[in-house]
Design brief:
The chain is of the alpha+beta class and 396 residues long. The chain contains 14 helices and 13 strands. The longest helix is centred in the last third of the chain and has 22 residues. The structure holds flavin-adenine dinucleotide.
């Protein structure tokens, strides 16, 4: 039975209700579009109301805070190559771990392609949770584990999408600054069921299982991201993002959760103590901040966020995290989900149903919804962007 307050359009699946339930009466089950929604077992529910108390729905405005400080940041060590943008997350996480804390962040599991939050406390764990995985992660078991650590007096940093951070803050309010939160600027979370269908399709085409997957490979440069699929037969395929069917559907707003279309956290005021994003268009602000290897944007909203930022500066790999002052207004202008929700395509539900219920291949559905020329258009766009970048660099 669905939770009373959870409408499909507004519930974000943050998992706070599942983690707090003292009777384990709530589970997240695949619902609309293959996204997880809380379901209550009436036989177990005792009506204590704990789930209502931690649910962030209706509390969004109270949870948001303006940024006090902005920084452009990049890690000079190995961590940057292993990260999606400048490696700022790795440096923040290392600072917390060095101080005896733990980090709750998202890891991709292969085979299967599930993305789940996990608690990590060392470098090996950190390697698992680095990098963006563009689909909704499962939080609930890790949240329960995190609560256990907090009750033992440990510090736990949570990193996730703003809606997940909202749930984390409501869930961990009694633990104060031992439960800091880092939100990501987020343009929406695609369906886990769609990702699973996509992996199956790509494996069928390649005739081999996928061994490793990178949603945003930087080998052609941070400004020219590609999807990387490494197969068990030793073959590796790299495609400009928009030429990949899963990413193309994401970029066309065909595959995100219903609540993302109207996301109340897509604003300059943020829900985390600290916010991490790609520092898009950083070269227009200072060209020497962009060496094409990745630059992160960091926003600090609270005293705790400022402390994390300072600690991260010292904790970056080998030579530390380079942190440079940045203009908040430029950051907001350059990153759409910092200004407004990105909405959804009018065909979103039909597209997801075609693939998930109708069994249409993602490739055929993408062609049908984006038009026959989508692949070529994406290729031309990628190369034009690349040539323009080279030309601009040569002009200085
Ligand atoms: C679904 C999604 C949408 C995003 N949209 C934007 C955007 O529109 N604009 C923008 O500037 N940045 C966006 N980001 C953030 C961006 O992709 C980078 O994660 C960010 O710049 C941090 O990079 P980094 O190099 O510092 O750290 P990285 O090492 O890349 O670390 C990434 C962090 O994100 C966490 N994470 C990865 N996948 C998920 C997930 N599915 N759910 C929750 N947490 C996850 C990891 O655990 C890790 O903590 C998005 C991230 C996600 C996950």
């Amino acid at each position: 039975m669905p939770l009373e307050r959870c409408a499909e359009k507004t519930c974000t699946g943050c998992g706070a209700c599942v983690a707090i339930c003292p009777k384990a009466a709530i589970t997240l089950m695949p619902g609309e579009g293959g996204f997880p929604y809380p379901r209550v077992d009436p036989a177990r529910c005792v009506g204590c109301g704990a789930c209502d108390r931690v649910c962030p729905l209706g509390e969004e405005a109270a949870l948001r805070r303006p940024a006090r400080r902005a920084a452009a940041a990049w890690d000079l060590g190995e961590g940057r190559a292993a990260s999606t943008s400048g490696g700022a997350f790795g440096a923040v996480a290392r600072a917390v771990i060095a101080g005896g804390g733990a980090v709750c962040a998202a890891a991709l599991e292969l085979p299967g392609g599930r993305v789940r939050h996990a608690i990590v406390e060392d470098e090996v764990g950190l390697a698992r949770v680095r990098r963006s995985k563009y689909l909704q992660s499962e939080t609930a078991p890790a949240l329960r584990e995190a609560l256990g650590l907090l009750r033992k007096g440990r510090q736990v940093l949570f990193v996730g999408t703003p809606c997940q951070v909202a749930g984390w803050r409501r869930l961990t309010a009694p633990f104060g600054d031992r439960a800091p939160a880092c939100d990501l600027v987020c343009g929406g979370v695609p369906s886990p069921a769609l990702f699973a269908a996509y992996l199956r399709e790509e494996e069928r085409r390649a005739g081999a299982p996928i061994r490793d997957y990178d949603f945003r490979d930087k080998s052609a440069g941070w400004n020219f991201p590609r999807v990387r699929l490494a197969f068990a037969n030793g073959k590796t395929r790299r495609l400009p993002l928009r030429m990949d069917t899963f990413y193309a559907a994401f970029a066309a707003k065909l595959s995100c959760r219903l609540s993302c279309a109207d996301c109340p956290y897509s604003r300059p005021e943020r829900v985390g103590d600290i916010t991490i994003a790609d520092c898009w268009h950083v070269a227009a602000y200072r060209s020497d901040y962009d060496d094409n290897r990745g630059t992160s944007l960091l926003l600090a909203q609270t005293q705790e966020g400022e402390c994390l930022l300072t600690a991260a500066q010292a904790a970056g790999e080998t030579r530390g995290l380079t942190v440079r002052p940045y203009d908040i207004a430029h950051a907001v202008r350059s990153n759409a989900p910092l200004r407004h929700p990105l909405g959804a395509d009018g065909n979103r539900s039909r597209f997801l149903a075609d693939v998930l219920v109708g069994g249409k291949s993602l490739r055929a559905a993408t062609r049908a919804y984006l038009g026959r020329g989508w692949f070529v258009r994406a290729w031309v766009r990628w190369w034009m962007k690349r040539l323009l970048w080279v030309w601009q660099r040569r002009r200085g």
